[in-house]
Amino acid sequence: MKRDSRLSGVLHVLLHMAERGGPATSEALAKAMHTNPVVIRRIMAGLRERGYVRSEKGHGGGWTLACDLAKLTLRDVHEALGEPSLLAIGNRTEAPGCLVEQVVNAALGRALDEAEAMLLARFGAVTLADLSADFHRRLAAHRQPSDLETVHAD
User: Fold this and answer.
1) Mean pLDDT over residues 31-50, rounded?
2) C-alpha distance from residue 111 to each of 29, 66, 83 (Å)
3) Is pTM beyond 0.70 here?
């Protein structure tokens, strides 16, 4: 099963945007996510609807952050992406006739629901400011370039 990496990719892009300080084009962001600019525009639209980013058209335009990183959580971004599935495992059959399989599904279902609730709670406790602070600690330790074009040059 293919994993949905949009959350990771969007968080990556949002942190680059925070570092950039100015507008970033869909093309530059697509390069960072190794995808097509159309995909970026589609993903960023959900963030724009929530007021997390804004976009400006024309020369010098692009995407910019529209919110405080200290108030934006991983859960907020996950929800803006349409709440993609967090776990890649599930039951073999949704409505089994076999009583054994019903027992298995009930047990797995409860465990998966609990795991997802814990993960979402953790996502709600981590802000993008937390990620940015971790980035800055790592940057100071490694002295690596942080600009979008340099880091993601082909």
Assistant:
1) 89
2) 37, 37, 19
3) yes
**Is 146 within the bounds of a domain?**
yes
Q: Could you read off the pLDDT of 12-38 as tens digits, one per residue?
A: 989 989 988 789 999 988 887 788 999
Q: What is the longest distance spanned by two Cα atoms in the chain?
A: 64
Domain range enclosing 42: 6-151
Q: Is residue 1 part of a domain?
A: no
Write out the H or E segment, with its range, that includes residue 62: strand 62-65
CA angle 57, 58, 64 (to 5 degrees): 45
What letter represents residue 98's amino acid? C
Q: Rounded distance, CA 69 to CA 15, Å?
A: 9
User: What total number of domains does the chain contain?
Assistant: 1
Residue 102 tokens, joined: 């019903």
CATH of the domain at 47: 1.10.10.10
